[in-house]
Amino acid sequence: MIKRVYKNLKSTMLLFLWLTCSVAVLAQERQVAGTIKDANGAGLPGVSVVVKGTTTGTTTNAEGRYSLQAPASATLVFSFIGYVTQEAAVGSRASVDMVLAEDVLQLGEVVVTALGIERSQKALQSSITKVPGMSLTAARENNLGSSMQGRVAGVNVSKSASGPAGSSRVIIRGNKSIGGSNQPLYVIDGIPMDNSQFGQVGVWGGTDQGDGLTSMNPEDIESVTILKGAAAAALYGSRGGYGVINITTKKGATKKGIGIEFNSNYVLDKVYRLDDLQRIYGPGAMVTNPADPTGPRISAYAVDKLQAWTWGAGTMWGPKMDGSSVIQFDGEMRPYSYAGDNWERFYQTGSTWTNSLAITGGGNNQTFRFSFSDMKEDFIVPNSGFKRKNASLSTNGKFGKKVTFNAKVMYSNEKMNNRSMLGDSPGNAPIAIWGLASTVNVNDLRGDPNKLGAVPAGTTTPDLKATGEEYQQANNNWLQNPWWAAYQILNENIRDRFITSANMRYDILDWLYIQGEVGMDWYTRNNNSLVPQGTGYQRGGAKSETSNFVREINQTWTLGADKEFGKIRVNAFVGGQKMIREYEAINASGSNFNVPFFTSVNNTKSQSFGYGYSKSGINSLFGSAEVSYGGYLYITATARNDWFSVLAPENNSKLYPSVGGSFVFSDAFNNLPEWLSFGKLRAAWGQVATANVGSYAVNPTYSLLGQGHLGIPMGTFSFGDNIPNTNLNPALSSEIEVGTELRFLNGRAGLEFTYYTQKTTDDILSATISQSSGFNSTSVNIGELTNKGIELLLTGTPVQGPVTWDISLNLAKNENMVVELSEGVTRLFVEEPRTRNAAVYHVKGYPFGMILGYKQKVDPASGQKVYDANGYPIRSDVFEILGNGIAKLTGGLSNTVRWKRFSLDALIDFKSGGDIYSGSEVNLTGWGLHKQTLAYREGGMPIEGVIQTGTGTDGKPVYGPLSMTLNREQVRNYWGNLASRAQENFMYDASFVKLRQVSLEYSLPASILDKTPLQTVAVSFVGRNLAIIYRNTDNIDPESSYTSSNGQGIDQFTMPGTRSYGFNVRVVF
Asked: Nearest CA to 585 among 608, 611, 607?
């Protein structure tokens, strides 16, 4: 296996080096310089200046100046987003200046569509959005997924509240599959990138293991193009079924000598507090009063003064904190008083420092770009951080007039130290902090200074723990010491990744070409985790080691033609693609160490080993034809056929077509009103198929499981409870969209509107079968769900002149419906938190991902709530609908203000219509920490409702009135029962409005830099997640979902949110 990997890698690298080292033929050149300005006379930075017909080029600096080598016969092409592209012949001139006219219509701009094909934006028949890389990096966000929040209509981005290197969930136009991931395909310069998630939080907790996007260096990104609809993504086949995000990286440019760009940014992360808890009553369990055994129970604190070492230590149901002396966990007498803010003591100020360097250069026929980036992030949780190093090298060039090539290699090394535990994991920092008794100072639990969180020498604990074991505040072993959780329970993830590609095109004629491309995404991932001996909940300790290997190779060839016949232009291509993916995993784990503190799996008493391997592939043929007339009428048809290796041969072939048209009526008619600058109508229909099954899913498999013999895993047939189904077909998704694009007042204002309707049929789901078959279920094509929605983009330039103000508002609304599940099944389980009183299900006849849970019973006749004889809520017999975790309306408001050398960018994003179930709130209420539990603490809570008094002849309960008053202990039990029996009380509207990011940049004037080798020096101050302008949740962030899987809308002790502030320095030589 490894030999095959390195053989392929070696071949790819040799090809890359051959292309890089090719000798370019240089023509007689001269130095040409100039200044590019806008209509107001201001210099335009970032304008692309390219010698026509070559890859030779550069970009203008902050003052709009440029300089490059070009022959006298050359023609320079000046292009910039939002401006009309212009050309100028060099001739005998040494200086070529240019004034670019605004063109917010961007008709000449090209975008990267399917398979890396570039198309004019006005020819597009479906909604495709291009986001410049500078917009994504303005606030120095390290994850590409997170940087797209609020920027694109119809793209719903969620990030799990898991800390650094966590995963993002990016959903385009709603969820389209019940069983699939629903996340888009990411393509880097034409090569698909694996974005697998290797771990998510579940009912018992866990860690978010991140995704493939964390490997990307944002500074390498030139632009990102989002293909939303089925018609736009159809040429990517089954892998584009959930949409496609095309990433175009930066390329080299011709310079006199070489060009150097250096970026350095430093950002601080501060915890922002949203919790507001009661600090009046302290810890303590309720026990029998020795002086009055038959009377009311009292606080254990009142009996022996040994508070904080009872089962009630993690709950605040004791008396009012009055300052009297009590014995704490270490035998010390301390005041029974609020000990202060333990969050402030434990969480630290996080920081991220990133340095990036890029070098570009080359001649007329060949250019290169090399970049290196080093990032170090220290998280708010002590002893937790993320390091990433990136290096990339790309080359582009021509051999003569007919052959062009490009090649790239990207490398990343990521090391995550101590990912944050989430959910109900005992190592979860928020649980450890919230679970501390209010009277305990977390710093008193630091213990041994050489082994934080451990029992120090000479200390006798109530449970007589040995020196070096976990120093705990209570006899509840699951109430963990925060310092032990941070410094002794360890996990480490290391990933090394290569993404390589090589592309060559040969122009057979001036209108006919052939092109070939090969690319590979290859990475290894090693995980190690340790629960040391002496840990409260795992006294014997445990160790786990896992290694993953992933390799994916894509090979594509294309034969294309682009020819004009008078007013008719035909642009067509046909081609084929082959994808092979291999996955290999090895794991070893053990528990209960034999030799104390020797942390090896081989040193454990109970051991298990595992090995897994899978290989899959897709072979494809595709074709596309675009016919345009007069530059204003476009019709495009595409088709692709995939052959899936994961399906049986008789069912593994699927053909899916698309067709679309666009009509630029502002170009077709000359008598339109002057205020209408541009008008376009478009429509498209397309189909894509997806095969959401694993390798070998249609056949029985043989795997290596368990201890086996003499420590060697032995093979077993792993049928499981699900019988393979050879009749499975790919699921099919069909989509229709119509839209319009309008520009007004010479481009000062714009409107884009899209309506779409989408339907997925034959989704692959598990269906229950007769147990007489020897199995419980099988996979079948039966699931069906729909999406329909609208997307709106409004743009404008309210102020234009010395001060320019650009504003854009994007809105999207999506309505989703689960139409069909398996036969006889009305709901399908997805995810649940540790409370187990609520869960996410797919429910027939409802939107994707409904939150269900127990509600308090209500008398249908009177509408009053039902209680038991103690005055505690009676829960419903079955789960009922509580809400939906997916927002119906999403959007963002972006503002950019420019004045002289200052530029201010601000982004506000918002979501509305989703809900969140807070398991954190459930626990805070049950523990007596929530402020709502202050009501009637001393007793006297009135209960008015009904109680079941019998059963009617129809078998239905009969209710009678209930009126009672609860005493102090009953009040405590009331809140505990409410937390477990009435989950509707812990559902919140997850709508929010956030100030997502702000960036203020200042560029030094050219007059200062003229006599230096510097072209640009810019300093910016950045901020992220600066304010929650609106929310409707208690104690939690509306975005505190603990997973990026399909089970959205669950909060269970996630990481606290942070506000980020920092600066960036950009220097260009």
From this structure: 611
Question: How much is the average pLDDT of 436-451?
Answer: 93
* pLDDT tens readout for residues 509-557: 999 999 999 999 999 999 999 999 999 999 999 999 999 999 999 999 9
Q: What is the 3-state secondary structure (H, E, C) of 743-762?
A: EECCCCEEEEEEEEEEEEEE
Euclidean distance between CA atoms 817 and 783, whole angstroms: 11
For 779, phi then psi, to 5°, come to -90, 135
On whether the CB atoms of residues 927 and 315 are closer than 8 A, the answer is: yes
Burial class, 507, CB count within 10 angstroms (exposed 0-12 / middle 13-18 / buried 19+): middle
Which residue type sits at 1045? S
In 425-466, which ranges are continuous DSSP H helix? Answer: 429-434
> Residue 1058 pLDDT more than 60?
yes
Question: 1063 pairs with which residues across the strands?
Answer: 266, 1021
Q: Would the CATH topology of 2-103 be identical to that of 144-157+181-270+350-423+488-721+733-849+885-918+991-1068?
A: no
Mean pLDDT of the chain: 87
Name the percent of the chain lying above pLDDT 90. 55
| CATH H superfamily, domain 144-157+181-270+350-423+488-721+733-849+885-918+991-1068 | TonB-dependent receptor, beta-barrel domain (2.40.170.20)
**Could you give the CA distance from residue 1013 to residue 1068 in angstroms, rounded to a whole number?**
9
Nearest to 608 by CA among 620, 623, 629, 592: 592
Give 244's contacts (C-beta < 8 A, 6+ positions apart). 114, 184, 185, 186, 187, 226, 227, 232, 233, 236
Contact 354, 378 (CB under 8 A): no
Is there a contact between 646 and 695 (Cβ–Cβ < 8 Å)?
yes
Strand runs labelled E in 858-1009: 880-884, 889-899, 902-912, 915-918, 941-951, 957-966, 987-1003
Partners of residue 356 on adjacent β-strands:
263, 373
CATH architecture of 2-103: Sandwich (2.60)
Give the tokens for residue 959.
């209710």
Report pLDDT digits (tens) over 817-842.
999 988 788 999 998 888 788 999 99
- Indicate yes or no: pTM above 0.70: yes
pLDDT digits (tens, 9 = 90+) for 660-671: 999 999 999 988
Contact 515, 188 (CB under 8 A): no
pLDDT in tens, 739-770: 999 999 988 999 999 999 999 999 988 777 76
The structural domains of the chain, with segments of one domain joined by +, span 2-103, 144-157+181-270+350-423+488-721+733-849+885-918+991-1068, 850-878+931-981
Task: Using the predicted structure, report yes or no on whether residue 933 has a pLDDT greater than 60.
Answer: yes
What per-residue confidence (pLDDT) applies to 300? 63
Compute the distance between CA of residue 527 and CA of residue 522 in angstroms, rounded to an integer.
Answer: 17
Query: Using CA atoms, how far apart are residues 405 and 34, in angstroms rounded to an integer?
Result: 29
**Closest CA relative to residue 227, chosen from 849, 629, 688, 894:** 688
| Residue 433: closest CA among 483, 477, 474, 385 | 483
Both structure tokens of 351: 């920081």
Tally of CB atoms within 10 A around 1027: 14
What is the distance between the alpha carbons of residues 1044 and 1027, in angstroms, rounded to a whole number?
23
- CA angle 348-136-213, nearest 5°? 70
